[in-house]
Amino acid sequence: MPEIDFFLNLLNLEHLPPLPEDPVKRADIESVLQNGYVALDNLLTEEDVQSLREEVDRMTGENPRTGRHMFEGRDTVRIYSLLNKSRKFDKCCLFDRVLALNEYFLMKGYTISATSTIQINPGEKPQLFHHDDGYTYLPRPRPPMGVAIMIAIDDFTAENGATLMVPGSHLWDSKRRPTMEEAVPMVGKAGTVFYFLGTTWHCGGSNMTNKPRRAATIQYCQPYIRAVENQFLAVDPRRLSEIPDDIVKMMGYGLQKPFIGYVDGLDPLKGARRMVDWLQQPLDMQPPAFATIDIIGIAHSPAQLHPIRPAVNMNPHISVPRQHSTPSFGGSSGAGSAGRGNSSIKMPRFFKRLFKFPQMDFEMAIWEMTSLLIAPKKVFKSMYYHVKTKNTWHRPDPSFTYLLSFFLLLTALAWGLAYSPSFGSIFRLSILFVFVHFIGTSLFISTIAYFIVGRIFGPNGAAASLTGLSRGSRMPRRGAAQGLFAQPGEKEHIEFGYCFDVSNRAFFPLYLHLYVIQFLLLPLLTRNPPNFLTTFLGNTLYLSALLYYTYITFLGYNALPFLHNTELLLLPILVLSILWLVSLIAGWNVITQGRGVEGLFWGV
C-alpha cells in the first residue's frame, strides 16, 4: 500500500501518534487510513450474537414503529438510547480493537455520541448517502469529528441491506458526492464489526430478501463536539450505577482536563448522584448554589433564587421547566400565541443572508452552474446531503442568485453598448434583465409550483392515482394561512425556498442560450432575407433554451422522494418539439417574424 504519510497529509493528521507495534492494531489503523473503514471479525461469539438478537426482538415488539422520514427509512425500525434500555449492549461499547482505533483517531476524553439498533425490513430502499459528522460543516478533507461502528447482528449480504461504504471517500473534498457505482457492500458474518470514520460516505443498503437485517451502531465523537444523542437526558441518571464506569465516563460523566464539564464545582458523576437525590425534594428546597431556570426559561443568578416557589399545580417532587415555543406559521402554538395570527412570522434565512457576503458560498454556486451544463442531476443529488444536515431542501444561500444577477448585468451592458449605447437604455435594460426576467419570472413560476406541485404529484395528488398510491397523504395542503414562507424542518413538505431554488437553477441555461449565445449569433440569425439555415438555427436555439428549462425544472422536483410521477413535467418537451417542427416546415423564424429579440427588450 502507499506510504501512510500520504494519507496522514491528506487528512491533516500529521499530529497523530506513531503506529502501534502490535500487527493487528497496526493493520486495522492502516486500513482505516487508506479506505476510511475496516472490518473487524469475530468480536462477538455466537452466544453474544444470539443474545443481541433476542434483545432486539424484545425491544422491537410485535408492531414496531418504522422510520418517520426517508432518512430513518420507511421500512426500517430503529431503537435509540440503548444504554437506558438494555445492559446487553454494554459490551458493544468496549471492544478492545475498537477502543484502540479510537485512541488513535480521537482525542483523549472522547465521548459516546449515539447508540441505536437498525432493523432494515424487506422491501426497504437504499438510504441517502451521508457521512456521520456532516453536521459540523467544516471543510474537507479534514480530521474526523467522530467515528462509528456497525455491529452485524445478522449476516450482512449485498441483498439484505448491508451497509454500503465508499472506499477512500474520507479523503474527498467538500464538493464531491458519491454514487451507487462507487459504493461497496460491507459483507460479513453475524458478529462482524465495521469501524468507519465520521468523514466516510456510506448508507444503508436495500433489503431485497424476505427477512429483516438487524444491526446495532455505536457512535463516538471528539470531546469538543456536541454528541448527536443527549446522553444526559437519554439515560436515566438512576441507572448510572448499573452501567460500567468506562461507559459512564464516555457518556460525558467525567472531567476533561483541566476541569471541563464540572457541575457546581464537582465531578459530573457526583453532581448526577446529588441531582437524583434532589429531584425527590420540593423545588424550593434545593440549595441556592445551583443556577436554576424558571418557568419562562430565563437563567437567574444564585442571589435571585432563594427561595424558589413551585408554580401552581406543579408536581412538588419533579418539575421540568417549559420554554415558550415559537409560534407556527399555520396557527397558534400555545395559549400565549392565541389571536396573534402570523405576527410572529420571521423572515426566511435567504433574505437574512442577502448582505452577508462572507457567508456566501460562491465556489459552490460556480460548481452548480458548471454542473447544470454538463451533469445537471448532480446539482439536485447534492440536496440529499443538504436535507440530511440542515433538515431543509432549500439552500438559504443567495450566492447563486447574486452571481447570475452579476452575469445578467454584464450581458445587459453588452447588449446596450451594441444596440442602444446610452446610459438610460443600459440602466433600464439592467433592471429588466435582473428584476423582471430573472427574479420576477423565478418568483412567479416558483409561486405557481409551490401551490400546485404538491397537489398534483404528492401522495394525495392527481398524479398519484397513476401508481395506485394510498390516499392517506403526508403532503400538506397549501393555504393562505400558511403563507409562502413555511417553517423549515419537515423533509416531506415542499418549501417555497426550494421552488425558488429550482426556478433559479433552471434559468441559468436559458440565460446562456438567449442572453449570451443569441447575442453572439444575432447578426447571423437576423440576416435579411431569412433563409432555412437562419430559421433553423434561431428556432433551435429557442427550443434548446426552453427544453433545458423544462428538463432542469423536472430534475428539481423529481429529486424530492415524496413526489410521484413527476415525469409528467416533461410533457412540455413534446409540445415544444412539435411547435419547433411545425415552425420549420412553415418557414416561420421565431427571432425575426416571431419578434423573439423584441420580446427580450420589451419596455426598453
UniProtKB/TrEMBL annotation:
GO cellular component, one term: Golgi membrane
Topological relation to the membrane, as annotated: Multi-pass membrane protein
UniProt-listed InterPro entries: Phytyl_CoA_dOase-like, UNC-50
Protein keywords: Membrane, Transmembrane, Transmembrane helix
Superkingdom, taxonomy of origin: Eukaryota
Residue stretches spanning the membrane: 400-419, 431-453, 506-525, 532-557, 569-591
PANTHER family on file: PROTEIN UNC-50 HOMOLOG
Entry protein name: Integral membrane protein, putative
Organism: Talaromyces marneffei (strain ATCC 18224 / CBS 334.59 / QM 7333)
